[in-house]
Amino acid sequence: MQVARPALQLKALLTEPRRHLRAAARRAADQHTWHRVASRLSIALAERDTPQTPLIAAARRGDVTTLQTLLAQGAAANAQGPHGRTALFEAVLHAHVDAAACLLACGSNPYIADRRGRTPLSLGVVTPETLHAIRQRYHRWPAPHAAQPLPSPDVQRWVDCLRRDGIVKISGLIAPDELARMQAAVDRFVVALDAQLAKGQGLYLHYDEEEHFWPHGQAYVTNNAFKYSRDFVRLCCRTPLVDAANLYFGKPAFIQRALAMRYPPSPSRDNDMFGWHHDMDDKRFKVMVLLSNVGTADQCMSYALGTHRIFHPYAMFFQNECSLDYCRAHLGTLEIYDAVGVAGDVFVFDSNGAHRGNRRQSAAVRDVLLVEYTTDRSEIWGGDIDADLAEELGGPNRPLERFVTARKKWTLPFVRRFPAWVENLPHVDRWL
What we know:
Structural class: alpha+beta
Strand content: 5-15%
CATH superfamily of the largest domain: q2cbj1_9rhob like domain
Strand order of the largest sheet: 1-8-5-10-4-3-2
CATH topology of the largest domain: Jelly Rolls
Number of domains: 3
CATH architecture of the largest domain: Sandwich
Largest sheet: 7 strands, antiparallel
Number of helices: 15
Radius of gyration: 29 Å
Distance between the termini: 53 Å
């Protein structure tokens, strides 16, 4: 197809009779469209045919095995292709979420822009659904790090069980005198809250409160459990639990929140934490200490084994319901595990898995302490810890490092509309 030069096109328009002007203008517009399409096609062909680095080529294919091999051999994670796009950018553009998570975990820089000024994890490039999928996988991807001391056989066994089932029972971590002091600490919390209730205060208002009685769930709750028990603080910073958390995450873990709960006898219910749910925060290492004996006829927690491995879709993180039918659709048959034991037993579980609390009117009171470890530093609740104890147990890469400096959640204005991670999702610096 021969295209007239612009000067000749203009001369033709000026000399043609008026009745032909409209047709000539249409022909000129068609030629302009053809030029634009041809230009875009030329760019696309050039991009396709321009040699890419092996790492970028593997990212475009979503070939995680090759990516890992190349990175282990020293490939430059942040090298840019002819259009300024890194391997991470290419993985995101082609919706290869595992490849993107692998690259992030191995040090790819998400802030390197292409020639159009776009960064790979900006919402102009990636949808919230894809960004969520990348974030989930990134938080479950062990990061390369310097060699660490080998864990003890016990710690390795706990983590192997946790990776397989999502929950593990540990006995013998707490001495009898420590247990007695922890039990007394929860008694003090309940007495203090009962005194507030007698004054017409202390009833549940919202989830982020320091402590409250929840009439709908018939439960005493404090999000400031470290205030009541130094022994609990020490337990959560003790080497076996910290080593297990670090090994499970593959990177340093931080304490996110410390809770104490008392569950008086209550009729069976199937709502909120007493229905099958996940915790809407993705992968977390959650520790539960039984302070009372809990049998199968008591108010035990139940856990659907293996469900911690499910990658929940974006929409499921706006509510925590996680039905067994949904889990079976992903995993097939399910085995339900009841967390029963004696006072002093410890259960560690990944709260991304489906779990529920069971309420029974004829059961005994159930007291528990809980602590949550995370690698997502954007949502640390903070709490009250004696200054001398915080100094003794804190420090770089220790689990209390962020906790002791965080603003206490219940002192901040309550503005929660969505889970915190939803608000943090577009702000990559908050969760990387």
